[in-house]
Write a structure and sequence with these properties.
single chain; mainly alpha; Rna Polymerase Sigma Factor, Chain: A; Arc Repressor Mutant, subunit A; 8 helices; 68% helix
Amino acid sequence: MQRTVVLTDREQISPAQAALDGRARFEQWVALYQPRVARLAQRLLGWRADVDDVVQDVFLAALSHAESFRGESSPWTWLAAITINRCRRQQRRTMLWRKVAGWFGARDAAPAADEQIQEGEVNRRVRACVFALPEKEREVVVLYYLEQFSAAEIGRMLGVSVNVVDVRLHRARAKLKRDLAEWRWQ
């Protein structure tokens, strides 16, 4: 009888080790991180349906590039960086598709059923304001406030200095404060 090993985030097992230990071990590693990757992708993409595709891309990339994990950060930080890059790529594809569709007069498909669920007006407005931020500012807001990474970790993930992260956070907070204040008084 094969014993099932349950991973915890504290074990900090590398993706390369999980891949080398076999399919079951890698599947456990994916199961450990999949909800976090999905949540981050959902927040970066604005709660759209593209999330499942991005999550799958993230884990395929993690498996194919597992040997590149150097252990200088946690596996979650490494996966978060991959997720950011995959979300950026998905957003570029979406923008290109909309541009091409616009040339041919195509219209967007009807919203997904889950997007039609009633949400509180405040939550909806905050999400809209966060999503309206420029991509680089939205990334740091999501990583800092929602995923609770430190400015230093975000800097390493994005390949920028801590000062750049702080400036982006400052600008994003100012825009959010302005946009939410305008909405409140409408």
